[in-house]
Amino acid sequence: MQAPWKPGGTTSLSPSSTVPDPEEAVAQSCAAVFGTGRRGVIHDGDAIMHAECRIGDIVLIMGGADGAPAHLHLYRRDPDTAFGQAVPEDATVVPPKEEHGVSDRRGGVQSADGATWWRARQC
Q: pLDDT digits over 48-68, tens only?
């Protein structure tokens, strides 16, 4: 049974990568490397800001944006509590928890090593 706090067909944890040329990387990775099509594509003008592809039971997220090259997107039943517990002294909040349209409530924490951990709940 799918949990109501995350999108259907997703796992609780999804890896995400920021790449310099998302159009090429998404097309290359999804089709050639993983043998799957892209899904959940969100454009920012002509560029891909967010795209997903399924690899087995994992959803890989890729896109082009400024920031850390590695991200982990974690769906939680209670992301606000998880967010509050996960901000160590050497971490930076990027951005704070907030509603994102009709899809998610999420916020990110960038650790000292540069990885960004997102905590979210589907609205």
A: 788 888 877 888 888 877 767
